[in-house]
Amino acid sequence: SQQGEEDPQALSIQEGENATMNCSYKTSINNLQWYRQNSGRGLVHLILIRSNEREKHSGRLRVTLDTSKKSSSLLITASRAADTASYFCATVPENSGGSNYKLTFGKGTLLTVNP
Amino acid sequence: GAGVSQTPSNKVTEKGKYVELRCDPISGHTALYWYRQSLGQGPEFLIYFQGTGAADDSGLPNDRFFAVRPEGSVSTLKIQRTERGDSAVYLCASSKTGVGGYTFGSGTRLTVV
């Protein structure tokens, strides 16, 4: 079953613009991760934010987490054509019964950055 | 190796046949995971290995699916009596511990005709 839901399902922007994708989830989490996938194949881990963190930065990426709203956002600044990909959020449940390893993914946001 | 390697990258098989999908994780990564991704969906968990043992196989859809990791490194996902609904990209990932960012392979695209 899918825990996360990304919004929007698809996003098309011009190079240089910022892209914001949102993720909502249902149950308490240990951490939330964002992944990128090109052409429906391997996923690349972008960033991990723990439940006690509110914001993290990595290069042009900024992730926020609001556990009270059970939501996260991924901001890509100054987008490039090479950022075109699908972006997924994935949650790891709060430690319960040792199942804190299992990623539950959303359906993803397809980002298209036009040159 | 430098990354997670999955072979074959593509596999076409006839309905009812048996297939094996291989995953070679990053050296030293004790945790290994298999996920399945259907078209237009996010990956879904199948099975998790810690070392040689399957710590959680709750995501395997039925008893036609089985996975092994006999020496704690390479893993093989085995599907018996394949059905058209098994068509998907099968992704393998590994990590140093059971928690944290995972490194995924490029996946095996399985097509059952």
Q: Could you describe the 3D structure shown?
A:
The complex is a heterodimer of chains A (about 120) and B (about 110). Chain A has about 120 residues and is mainly beta. Chain A has one domain (about 5-95): Immunoglobulins (Immunoglobulin-like). Chain A has no helices and eleven strands. In chain A, strands 2, 4, 5, 9, 10 and 11 form a six-stranded mixed β-sheet that branches. Chain A has a five-stranded antiparallel β-sheet with strand order 1-3-8-7-6, with no helix packed on it. In chain A, strand 7 (about 60-65) and strand 8 form a beta hairpin. Chain B is an all-beta fold and about 110 residues long. Chain B has a single domain (about 5-110), classed as Immunoglobulins (Immunoglobulin-like). Chain B is globular. The interface between A and B is medium-sized, with 27 and 30 residues.
Give the mean pLDDT of chain A: 90
Q: Give helix % range of chain A.
A: under 10%
Structural class of chain B: mainly beta
Arithmetic mean of pLDDT of chain B: 93
Give the low-confidence spans of chain A. none
The N- and C-terminal alpha carbons of chain A lie at a distance of 36 Å
CATH C-level category of chain A: Mainly Beta
Name of the CATH superfamily of chain A: Immunoglobulins
Anisotropy-based shape of chain B:
globular
Q: Uncertain segments of chain B of ≥5 residues (pLDDT<50)?
A: none
Residue fraction in strands of chain A: over 45%
Going by CATH, the architecture of chain A would be Sandwich
Q: Total number of helical segments of chain B?
A: 0
CATH fold node name of chain B: Immunoglobulin-like
- Domains of chain B (count): 1
CATH superfamily of chain B: Immunoglobulins
- What general outline of chain A do the C-alpha atoms trace? globular
Largest sheet data of chain A: 6 strands, mixed
The total strand number of chain B stands at: 11
CATH class of chain B: Mainly Beta
**What oligomeric state do these chains adopt?**
heterodimer
